[in-house]
Amino acid sequence: MDMKILVNLVFLLCAISSVKCQEAKSQQAILAEMKKSTFGIELCYPNSVKRFYKANGFNYAWIKPKDKAGQTWTGMLLLDCVLQFGLNHNDYHPEKLSYDSLRTMINEPEKVSEVAKVQYDLLLTDALITFMNHLHYGKLNPEVSSAKIDGGGLKGFSAESELIGALKGKDFMLTLLSVQPKTKEYEQLQSYMRLIKGQYVDDCYEVPETEARKIAINMERLRWANINGFNYIHINIPSYSVKLHEKDTTYDFKAIVGKAESQTPVLSSIVTHFTTGPDRKVSQSVFTKTLLPQAIKNSDFFERNHYEIYDIKGKHIAINSYRIRQINSNPAQYFARQSNACDNSLGALVFQFSNKFNIYLHDSPNQALFERDLRALSHGCIRVQQAERLAELLLKYDGSESKIPLMQKSVNAYQKRNFILSSPVPVKVTYLTCEIQDGLPVFYKDIYHLDETLENQLYGMDESRIADNLR
Q: Which of 362, 379, 434, 449 is catalytic?
């Protein structure tokens, strides 16, 4: 064998041996750190970090030679830009993940101890896993706690698995950011936040911090909503709106929601069917002999007991003391229906979806209320204008367009009939006090006074508010 070739081969084998020796050394250092109950450092998602390094062969993920450290710098850049996602720098180990330390570890690794490298690698992994969980679930998700996420039993999404996939993929940054909600509402808020916390800052154009915080807390709420797919019903409480989203179209309806003392809850469910003629008609004898005498004594009797009154032609009658006496003078010209739901009447249609709050999406006999600007008027249920139109669209989307005439007939005759959807439609009830329209934010009244509490949880109470609360 040529001596030159032999020498080169020896050098190559030595280099390979040196690399393997270094890999073994780093694996041992990471394993040693893993065996410590607290890693020697405080992590947000310690069990997720363990699962990540097990999947990564207990190798360094970020402390690499400078020609292979591109993803490391991208990860650090994302953590620099968390304000553009409505998040807080302090949640991602900013005091320990310094650029100066990282440059030394990558450019002059011999100057840094193995323990310091391992701890930096673990912290950066934890910071990115935390960032991804906050983007996907939200930081303060009332249904999915950080402990539940770190336990690893949740189906569908795993930040550590996504992070492993990002390291192996072609576009590291895109993969990390793809864990965010994909709804139009969220994407518009995120784009605007990126504008005011990125481009506007660079252009020395200031946006009030109160506006940025309002956008941030509503991005947080949309992360909780966990909306997937193109087809769903979105009910937003502060905007008094119901939207039926289909792939290329959105249908808008006005809504009436719960009063401040009987709030409509935020929830997720599926509409499985709807019912025509849902309210029970009271017999004329009971109406005349039992209900009217009670109402004469107490004018709020009908409302408290979920009754609505109609004339003989089916026209809804608004009740007050004078009208009750008028009805009592000729009761045969009127009748009552009683609802077993949270509101006095479900109207001609009710859309059924399972929920622990026992609320419904339904029609209303009093359509004039939809013309008011402030529509927090119900006992918790959601009333929708043009309920029959919504029912038609659901039947059409379900491939049951032929059932529309029967539904219309049942509504007109007030006949009780169930219409089962072969493909149930997701329904999301949210509390969003801000959305983007035509590129600019639109703010809604915080009717249940929930914004300040969430803002304080995300940002902490500032000094001016602390002073106000002490007065």
A: 362
